[in-house]
């Protein structure tokens, strides 16, 4: 069975944690002791179990009734395995939402049927679009509180499709649900006969596991292995992860950004020799010559010409409470590379009402999304995010406070 990575997003109190709890409960993926714990707690709604407690495990989450950290849950059906990430809706914890979305195949965004599309709904939807999440499932929740109205669902559906029309999702599906009651979650609801589509679980089971684009061969070096033993006295291996593409014995590679070339003499995967390794494999690479290679270098196929430079146009989601600083050194972390950089200028900022970037050189504050020009102290291999998401993204860390300041997605190499 293949694996589908799913994350939930949306505004506060739209029912994300309850939705995941209902999925786990109705697919019988909850341990008996967890059910006993829920049964002993205060019930919600019309005497329903508080299923949000299955994912909201922090004491502060249970006290405040909101999700703060990302909670991961695992379950399987006869058709597919799933990893569910419950991400917070509160604007203060947008950074945690970005973390949960960064590796997902499907975004499940919730909308409260009473309130419709809110600012945080727009923000989360656009972040998922920037991260190139392929599939979007919109769950219009709490339909029981609007009398299971077909007109209300149609109104929200029309508004949402108009908003998301320009975004890059390959698939957009809208489902009316009531997570607390279990309507259209695992089983089709009898209370909404006007809805002819599938319940959420069936949509997830049939959703194509199409990954985001990752063109080219990119092997990020984590460390150099030099075991000082008698039988391995001359061994020199480069441990790392193959982010995309394939590597095989005898293949000619280029080390970026130095430009030196070498041939792969041997590959080691899972403590055994291998003739070939594939994307996401953690391995050790031996070369036919000794070169100056260290953490942060990237192996590419010698025939490729990957984009590298010191000046980049990037999309940036600001995650720090302090505004983005101009002319102050940041650390850019991408792959295993760490290099100093500066934000030279702010070009545009996202208008959350129109979901378009507009010229705006003002300071970038918490949770704002902007297009900026980034200058690095040394040449960096940074792919366009749309072409290779594994090596086209990074984070900015404030060199003065060590706070994670922003998540960046490269749009263009300027120089």
State the fourth-level CATH superfamily of the largest domain.
P-loop containing nucleotide triphosphate hydrolases
Q: Could you say what the CATH architecture of the largest domain is?
A: 3-Layer(aba) Sandwich
Number of domains: 3
Helix content: 10-25%
Main sheet overview: 6 strands, mixed
The number of helical runs is 7
Write down the Rg: 24 Å
- Total count of strands: 22
According to CATH, the fold-level topology of the largest domain is Rossmann fold
Class by SSE composition: alpha+beta
- Following the backbone from N to C, one meets helices and strands in this order, namely EHHHEEHEHEHEHEEEEEEEEEEEEEEEE
Break the fold down into its secondary structure elements and pairings.
Blueprint: E1 3-10, H1 16-26, H2 32-40, H3 59-64, E2 71-76, E3 81-86, H4 94-101, E4 106-112, H5 119-130, E5 135-141, H6 150-164, E6 171-176, H7 200-206, E7 218-225, E8 237-244, E9 246-248, E10 252-256, E11 261-269, E12 272-274, E13 276-278, E14 282-287, E15 298-301, E16 308-318, E17 330-334, E18 337-351, E19 356-359, E20 369-381, E21 393-398, E22 404-413
Parallel strand pairs: 1-3, 1-4, 4-5, 5-6
Antiparallel strand pairs: 2-3, 7-8, 7-15, 8-14, 9-13, 10-11, 10-15, 11-12, 11-14, 16-20, 16-22, 17-18, 17-21, 18-19, 18-20, 21-22
Detailed description of the structure:
This protein is α+β, with helices and mostly antiparallel strands and 415 residues long. It folds into 3 domains: 3-206, P-loop containing nucleotide triphosphate hydrolases (Rossmann fold, 3-Layer(aba) Sandwich); 218-301, Translation factors (Elongation Factor Tu (Ef-tu), domain 3), CATH 2.40.30; 308-413, Beta Barrel (Elongation Factor Tu (Ef-tu), domain 3), CATH 2.40.30.10. Helices cover 16% and strands 37% of the residues. The protein contains 7 helices and 22 strands. The protein has helices at residues 16-26, 32-40, 59-64, 94-101, 119-130, 150-164, 200-206, and strands spanning 3-10, 71-76, 81-86, 106-112, 135-141, 171-176, 218-225, 237-244, 246-248, 252-256, 261-269, 272-274, 276-278, 282-287, 298-301, 308-318, 330-334, 337-351, 356-359, 369-381, 393-398, 404-413. A 6-stranded mixed beta sheet has the order 2-3-1-4-5-6, sandwiched between helices. A 6-stranded antiparallel beta barrel has the order 7-8-14-11-10-15. Strands 16-20-18-17-21-22 form a 6-stranded antiparallel barrel. Strand 17 (330-334) and strand 18 form a beta hairpin. It starts with a strand and ends with a strand. The model is unreliable at 58-68 (pLDDT under 50).
């Amino acid at each position: 069975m293949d694996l589908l990575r799913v994350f939930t997003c949306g505004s506060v109190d739209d029912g994300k944690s309850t939705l995941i709890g209902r999925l786990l409960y109705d697919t019988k993926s909850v341990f008996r002791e967890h059910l006993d714990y829920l049964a002993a707690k205060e019930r919600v709604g019309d005497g329903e179990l508080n299923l949000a407690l299955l994912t909201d495990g922090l004491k502060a989450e249970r006290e405040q009734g909101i999700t703060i950290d990302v909670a991961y849950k695992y379950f399987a059906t006869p058709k597919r395995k799933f990893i569910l990430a419950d991400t917070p809706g509160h604007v203060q914890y947008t950074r945690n939402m970005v973390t949960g979305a960064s590796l997902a195949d499907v975004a499940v965004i919730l909308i409260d049927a009473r309130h419709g599309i809110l600012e945080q709904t727009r923000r989360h939807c656009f972040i998922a679009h920037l991260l190139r999440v392929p599939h979007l499932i919109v769950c219009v929740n709490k339909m029981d509180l609007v009398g299971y109205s077909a007109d209300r669902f149609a109104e929200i559906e029309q508004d949402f499709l108009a908003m998301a029309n320009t975004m890059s999702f390959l698939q957009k599906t809208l489902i009316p649900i009531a997570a607390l009651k279990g309507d259209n979650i695992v089983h089709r609801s009898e209370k909404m006969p006007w809805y002819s589509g599938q319940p959420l679980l069936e949509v997830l089971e049939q959703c194509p596991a199409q990954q985001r684009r990752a063109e080219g061969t990119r092997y990020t070096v984590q460390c150099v292995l030099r075991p000082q033993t008698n039988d391995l006295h001359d061994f020199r291996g480069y441990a790392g992860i193959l982010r995309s593409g394939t590597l095989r014995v005898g293949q000619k590679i280029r080390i970026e950004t130095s430009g030196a070339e070498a041939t792969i003499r041997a590959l080691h995967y899972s403590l055994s020799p291998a003739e070939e390794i594939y994307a996401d494999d953690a391995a050790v690479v031996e070369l036919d010559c000794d070169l100056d290679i260290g953490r942060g270098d990237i192996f590419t196929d010698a025939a490729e010409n990957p984009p590298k430079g010191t000046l980049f146009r990037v999309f940036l989601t600001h995650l720090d409470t302090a505004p983005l600083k101009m002319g102050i050194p940041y650390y850019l972390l991408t792959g295993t590379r760490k290099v100093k950089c500066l934000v030279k200028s702010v070009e545009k900022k996202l208008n959350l009402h129109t979901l378009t970037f507009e010229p705006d050189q003002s300071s970038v504050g918490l949770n704002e999304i902007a297009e900026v020009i980034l200058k690095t102290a040394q040449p960096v291999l940074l792919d366009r995010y749309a072409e290779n998401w594994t090596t086209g993204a990074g984070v900015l860390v404030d060199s003065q406070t060590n706070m994670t300041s922003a998540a960046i997605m490269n749009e263009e190499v300027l120089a």
